[in-house]
UniProtKB/TrEMBL annotation:
Keywords: Nucleotidyltransferase, Primosome, Transferase. GO terms for cellular component: primosome complex. This is DNA primase. Its EC number is 2.7.7.-. SUPFAM superfamilies: DNA primase DnaG, C-terminal domain. It comes from Vibrio parahaemolyticus. One of its GO terms (biological process) is DNA replication, synthesis of primer. It is an enzyme of class 2 (transferase). One of its GO terms (molecular function) is nucleotidyltransferase activity. It comes from the Bacteria.
Length: 90
């Protein structure tokens, strides 16, 4: 396997006019990088806040179940500002 691969690489290098093995290696490496498969999409992390926002969007009648949020509106909770915006729209 290794001898045949080496022979084929040398033959390819000669046919392409590349006398240096490193030039051929660089060409092969560049081709491999371009042909990479695209990365699969990462699944969105399901956090409790995202779940609550999704439930509220799907069921606007739940807005009556949400208590007053004036005391927590300014807390640095991820997604809270979006949640409050959705509440205001419902």
């Amino acid at each position: 396997g290794g001898t045949l691969r080496l022979y084929l690489r040398e033959l390819l290098g000669r046919r392409l006019g590349l006398v240096d093995e490193r030039q051929l290696q660089q060409l092969i490496s560049k081709q491999g990088k371009e042909d990479k498969r695209p990365q699969p999409h990462k699944e969105i992390k399901r956090t409790p806040m995202r779940e609550v926002i999704a439930l509220l969007i799907q069921n606007p009648q739940y807005v009556s179940m949400v208590p007053d949020l004036t005391s927590v509106r300014d807390l640095p909770i991820p997604g809270l500002s979006l949640f409050v915006d959705v509440l205001d729209k419902c």
